[in-house]
Amino acid sequence: MACTLTRLSLAVALAVGSAPHGALAADGEPTPVFSAALGIKAGFIPPLLAVPELVIHTPHLFLGAFGIYTTGGIGNGGNRLTLGGELAFEVNGAGQNTPYASTGFFHYDAAKNAIGFYESTSVLTVTGGYEWKARHFEFQLGAGELFILKEQTPPCSGWFCFNFRQSVLPALDLSLRYRL
Questions:
Q1: Residue 140's CATH number
Q2: Which of 57, 87, 91, 118 is packed most tightly, with the most Cβ within 10 A?
Q3: What does the alpha-carbon distance between residue 130 and residue 100 come to, in Å, rounded to a whole number?
Q4: Alpha carbons within 13 A on the beta-carbon side of 19
Q5: What is the pLDDT of residue 85?
């Protein structure tokens, strides 16, 4: 699986890198029609609150994919997997600092651990913010709402139990990416 994902990532990066170029920017440099960026996406994303991310920019839109797989964890931790994607509208054209509005979806799954705890969550996010773009780096900062669509956990047992049963929470959108 990891080998296939690596090959796919390299193919996408090569395709984006060889895409035709669009109009000239203010400094005379060509502005690519398509561009890609790799980086870290942070926010309320279990299990680590930050995941690797690949973003493809087109004129006024970007499409992102992110995910992480971890083994073990604190205490009797089981394996954990987070996979997600996002689609955003950018007000300004390619290569320019811009306000944005995005929606995303991710699924988090924690396998049953040694004491029987498991967790599965599906989430929809709607955020807005601003994206700063330099020659080789992008910084994205935004906020919005996080909607828990589905959540599965074992029933409470023992003398202390905490289940956070909210269906709408605040969302933080924070990314730092290297533009390829």
A1: 2.40.160.20
A2: 57
A3: 6
A4: 20
A5: 96
38-60 pLDDT, tens per residue?
A: 999 998 887 778 999 999 999 99
Number of domains in the chain: 1
Instruction: With respect to residue 25, please indicate whether it lies within any of the assigned structural domains.
Output: no
Cα separation, 135 vs 73, whole angstroms: 38
Neighbours of 21 (CB within 10 A): 12
What is the pTM for the complete model shown? 0.73
- Please determine, for residue 8, whether its predicted confidence score (pLDDT) is greater than 70: no
How does strand 61-70 pair with strand 80-90? antiparallel
Range of the domain at 108: 2-20+31-179
Do 94 and 31 touch, CB atoms closer than 8 A?
yes
Structural domain includes residue 114: yes
For residue 133, being part of any structural domain is answered with yes
What does the pLDDT look like over 155-176, one tens digit per residue?
A: 766 556 656 667 888 999 999 9
**pLDDT in the model for residue 23:** 40
Nearest to 122 by CA among 154, 84, 92: 84
Residue type, 95: G
